[in-house]
TrEMBL record:
Source organism of the structure: Chitinophaga flava
All residue ranges annotated as the Multidrug resistance protein MdtA-like barrel-sandwich hybrid domain in the record: 56-249
Protein name, as recorded: Multidrug transporter
Entry coiled-coil feature ranges: 100-207
Keyword Iron: no
Keyword annotations of the record: Coiled coil, Membrane, Transmembrane, Transmembrane helix
């Protein structure tokens, strides 16, 4: 029985030794790979996938009639996302159209009046010429009778009659001139009124364009190819202009990673460096990337309350520099990386910098 226990103990000891050896070898291999990785790469796990996530904003208020999208739906540029009741905006457009037609009718009336006044002014001008000729003829007559009266060839009554006729002709001439000036003034007034109506038509047409835009804004469309985010609106809901209705992820732009490297890691980084990216969601796959920019300041410098080290309570903390990395590859492959995913970034240290 004792011999049997000895055999069992030796077997357990042997198995334990093999297991310990395997663990030691695994730890040694892990250590070698880790040290090699630290030597070859500047790496960080403080990195996330980013992409343009833009709000869908209502440019017109009203009741929602229909919602044409679902959460996470793929949409194309120009696709209808939702429809707002447009009856009030359509009525405003119709009222403006009616006002334009009324002003255009007033403009036609004014143009007709101006034409009539121009004819009246032309007639008054003709009367001036006739009255002036009568005055000229009567002045000669008066001069002749005055000479005859001086030679006692004409009576004083005849001279007075000629003079009275001259006064009447002068009065008619003055009246004709005043009539012409009045007609000219009425033409000027009518033309000024015409300019006012024309300006009103321009204003009303601009207002109509605005109302037509409001009608168009009641149909909210996708601004680009993308994928819809969370849906928070339903038919019958009242919304205001400027309200955010949903979010859309832009598929027409690049996808990138923001890697927050320690300040001690960025001394040799350059724009254009190639990068290896491993997502936590796909640990067995590697994505390629390219450094496209380094932040001009540390992340803490952009915070609402940047740290002030002049207070005397200084504790040295290694700062982080955001590095923007474009994800390269086919769109169908990189679309698996979703906004906000955590990734590990490996930037080879030895890269040629021309």
């Amino acid at each position: 029985m004792k011999k049997k226990h000895l055999v069992t103990d030796r077997l357990i000891t042997r198995i334990t030794g093999w297991m310990a050896g395997i663990i030691v070898l695994a730890l040694a291999a892990w250590g070698v790979l880790t040290i090699r990785s630290w030597y070859l790469y500047e790496q960080t796990n403080d990195a996330q996938v980013q992409e343009y996530v833009n709000p869908v904003i209502a440019r017109a208020g009203g009741f929602i009639v229909a919602v044409k999208f679902e959460e996470n739906q793929v949409v194309k540029k120009g696709d209808t996302l939702l429809v707002i009741d447009n009856r009030e905006y359509a009525l405003q457009s119709e009222q403006t159209v009616a006002s334009i037609r009324k002003s255009e009718a007033q403009l036609q009336v004014l143009e007709s009046n101006i034409h009539t006044l121009e004819k009246a002014a032309s007639a008054a001008n003709s009367q001036i010429d006739g009255a002036k000729a009568k005055v000229w003829k009567q002045e000669l007559e008066y001069k002749r009778y005055k000479e005859m009266y001086a030679d006692e060839a004409a009576t004083k009554q005849q001279l007075e009659n000629v003079q009275a006729t001259l006064d009447v002709n002068n009065s008619d001439y003055k009246s004709a001139r005043e009539n012409f000036e009045a007609a000219t003034s009425r033409i000027t007034d009518a033309r000024a009124e015409k300019q006012v109506v024309e300006a009103e038509i321009v204003r009303l047409r601009a207002l109509l364009d605005r109302h037509n835009l409001d009608v168009e804004y009641t149909v909210v469309r996708a601004a680009y190819d993308g994928r819809m985010g969370r849906r928070t609106v339903e038919p019958g809901q009242m919304i205001d202009a400027g309200e955010t209705l949903a979010y859309i992820v832009n598929n027409e732009t690049d996808k990138w990673v923001v890697a927050n490297y320690k300040e001690t890691q960025v001394s040799h980084m350059r724009v254009g460096d190639t990068v290896n990216i491993v997502a936590d969601a796909f640990p067995d796959e590697q994505f390629k990337g390219t450094v496209i920019s380094l932040s001009p300041a540390t992340g803490s410098s952009f915070s609402l309350l940047p740290p002030d080290n002049s207070t005397g309570n200084y504790v040295k903390i290694v700062q982080r520099i955001p590095v923007r990395i474009r994800v390269d590859g086919e769109r169908k492959d990189i679309d698996r990386l979703k906004v906000g995913m955590n990734v590990n970034v490996f930037l080879p240290k030895k890269q040629h910098h021309g």
